Every structure is written in structure tokens, then in C-alpha cells.
From TrEMBL:
Keywords: ATP-binding, Nucleotide-binding, Transport. Residues 6-242 form the ABC transporter domain. InterPro entries: AAA+_ATPase, ABC_transp_ATP-bind, ABC_transporter-like_ATP-bd, ABC_transporter-like_CS, Oligopep_ABC_C, P-loop_NTPase. PANTHER family: D,D-DIPEPTIDE TRANSPORT ATP-BINDING PROTEIN DDPF-RELATED (PTHR43776:SF7), TRANSPORT ATP-BINDING PROTEIN (PTHR43776). This is ATP-binding cassette domain-containing protein. GO terms for molecular function: ATP binding; ATP hydrolysis activity. Belongs to the ABC transporter superfamily. Coiled coil: none annotated. Gene3D superfamilies: P-loop containing nucleotide triphosphate hydrolases (3.40.50.300). The lineage of its organism: Bacteria, Bacillati, Actinomycetota, Actinomycetes, Propionibacteriales. SMART domains: AAA. GO terms for biological process: peptide transport; transmembrane transport.
């Protein structure tokens, strides 16, 4: 059996003229966490929805463990459903208000005709830090943080190999975001599932992700081990995102100068020619407007970047300091 939990090859998802995802290649090893990062509108949630097959991709392939699920019908997908789950951003919208928490959490097992569902529901609720009595309650009686714990309990009850967590904390109060993030990290370590963690906030993944993939306007611009992306980011967009992410040290935070990208994300209907980032890139040159940069490996751990100004050894500009950096 493959050591990969997920293999996405040249994924394309177009909605009519909107090129939401345009050639994304991504792999997640069994038991590891990959963060997919980018601004809203970059297409990262669409990638997540293609992986759990809420959407049928326009092109490319999605393989879960060893199975190509890209174009399976609903019926054909059924045996694969237990291998992958998703947690959405807004727990209020994703939990059916007519059902009890117990029915919601147990639903995946009922669809699999499993026995002993109520015992499993109690176990699953305990695992996410809720008392088993919560099973009798209705989702609207719970706080936002508790509801997201219910979503996580439901997602993990079938013991999936892969969890897609789509901005799982961004709709929650700041005060509970950290506890839900810590819960996900603990569960991932204890249960060993692979995870695609989708977020607009790079700082949220610094302690959770093994690898980071950075998405801009439907494409990946940089990916690699967490230590490389945080330590020696090579793409100007990654550098700009990092410069804007808050850091815990107040002195360091005060000394920071975020790189301002100016304009909003361009439209995915008519993306810029050449490098899609050229309209906002502080160091763009003429070539960037006409030639599409290829993604190339520039360093250890398969660190890849798509930028004309970064050479094969990883040397290139850092827009945070305005200087050239060797990586
Ligand atoms: Fe900027 Fe050009 Fe690199 Fe794109 S290819 S990130 S526009 S320098």
C-alpha cells in the first residue's frame, strides 16, 4: 500500500469562466499535516472540496490512498467515504439544527450500517473534550467552540486516514481558536490521520504543519517543509504573507514592517498573464508579465518555488528586507 494518504495531480476546477483551481499538484504522506495557505479567493477551499469530492474536478486526478476517486459516482464513492472527512469553517452552518448532537456525530457510522453507534458517539465526544450527555442536546444550545468540537467528533468517528480542515477556527471567537487548534493537533498526533489544513493565516499552522503549500490565484507558488517555508521563504508572495502574520513577541511585532501588496487579488476569470502575481509583486521584472514561471525544486525536503528571480540554488530576493538571500 502507498505511503501517501493523498495524491493530487494537476488538479483543475473551473466554474464556467472562473478558473478557481488551475493545475495544483500536492501530496500528503500518511500521518502528516500539510497546510494549504493563501488569501480568500485563492482557490484553496475549492481544492479541499475536490479532495472530499463535494465537487467533481474539471481536470487532473485525486487519489486517496491507492484509489483514484476523481470521477467516481456517488454510489462508487461510498466505500471511500470513511477514508476522508472534512471540517468546515462555520460549525453553525454545517450541523443540521433538526438533529441531536448524538445523531449528527453518529451519522457517518449509520451510513456504514455499523453497530454500537451510541458507545462510539460517547467515545468520540469525550475525545474532543465534550461530556457524553451533550449527545442529547441540539447544536443551537452549544457555544461556537463546542459546535466545532461536535463537527470534529463527527469527522473523526469513522477513523478517516485523511482529514480536510477548512479554516476550522476562523469563524470562532479569538479566545477559543487556540483551544480548538490545540485539540486538532493532539488528535492528529494520537490518532495519526493525515491532514490538509486550509487557512489564510500562516501563523496558525507554524506549530501544526509538517509541510506548507502556498496558493495564489488558483496555483501553488511555493511548497516545502515547514522549517523552510517559515525560515527561508523564497516566493515574494510567501514573504509578504509572513511579514503580515502576527508574532507572539511584542517587541518583534512592533519592529515588523508588513509588505503591502496593494491591489486586491485579481479576478480568476481573467488572471494576469505570465506570473499571476506580477500585478502585485514588489520585485516584478518585464519577463514576469509574459513568461509563466515553472515550479522548481530549490532546496532540501523538496522545497519548490515558481519565481523567475529565484535560481536553482534558491538564491533570490527577500521583499521584506529588499536584499538578495541565499537559501
Ligand atoms: Fe514576482 Fe516575477 Fe517572481 Fe512572479 S516571477 S513572484 S512577478 S519576481
Amino acid at each position: 500500500m502507498s505511503t501517501l494518504a493523498l495524491e493530487v495531480e494537476d488538479l483543475v476546477m473551473h466554474f464556467g469562466p472562473v478558473r478557481a483551481v488551475d493545475g495544483v499538484t500536492l501530496r500528503i504522506r500518511q500521518g502528516s499535516v500539510v497546510a494549504l495557505v493563501g488569501e480568500s479567493g485563492s482557490g484553496k477551499s475549492t481544492v479541499g472540496r475536490c479532495i472530499v469530492r463535494l465537487l467533481e474536478p474539471t481536470g487532473g486526478t485525486v487519489r486517496l490512498a491507492d484509489a483514484d476517486i476523481t470521477h467516481l459516482t456517488r454510489r462508487q464513492l461510498r466505500p471511500h467515504r470513511r477514508n476522508v472527512s472534512i471540517v468546515f469553517q462555520d460549525p453553525a452552518g454545517s450541523l443540521d439544527p433538526r438533529l441531536s448532537v448524538g445523531d449528527i456525530v453518529g451519522e457517518p457510522l449509520r451510513l456504514m450500517h455499523r453497530k454500537d453507534i451510541s458507545t462510539k458517539v460517547s467515545e468520540s465526544l469525550r475525545r474532543v473534550g465534550l461530556r457524553p450527555e451533550v449527545a442529547q442536546r441540539s447544536p443551537h444550545e452549544l457555544s461556537g467552540g463546542q459546535r466545532q468540537r461536535v463537527s470534529i467528533a463527527r469527522a473523526l468517528i469513522s477513523e478517516p486516514r485523511l482529514l480536510v480542515a477548512d479554516e476550522p477556527t476562523s469563524a470562532l471567537d479569538v479566545s477559543v481558536q487556540a483551544s480548538v487548534l490545540n485539540l486538532l493537533a493532539d488528535l492528529q498526533r494520537d490518532l495519526g490521520f493525515a491532514c490538509l489544513f486550509i487557512t489564510h493565516d500562516l501563523s496558525a499552522v507554524e506549530y501544526l504543519a509538517d509541510e506548507v503549500a502556498v496558493m495564489y490565484l488558483g496555483q501553488l507558488v511555493e511548497q516545502g517543509p515547514r522549517s523552510r517555508i517559515f525560515g527561508v521563504p523564497a516566493h515574494p508572495y510567501t514573504q509578504a504573507l509572513l511579514s503580515a502574520a502576527p508574532v507572539p513577541d511584542p517587541a518583534e511585532q512592533r519592529a515588523r514592517k508588513p509588505v503591502l501588496l496593494g491591489d486586491d487579488l485579481p479576478s480568476a476569470i481573467d488572471p494576469p498573464s505570465g506570473c499571476r502575481f506580477h500585478t502585485r509583486c514588489p520585485v516584478a521584472v518585464d519577463t514576469c508579465r509574459t513568461v509563466i514561471p515553472e515550479s522548481r525544486v530549490i532546496g532540501e525536503g523538496g522545497h519548490q518555488v515558481a519565481c523567475h528571480l529565484v535560481d536553482d540554488n534558491g538564491t533570490g530576493p527577500d521583499v521584506r528586507t529588499g536584499e538578495g538571500v541565499a537559501r
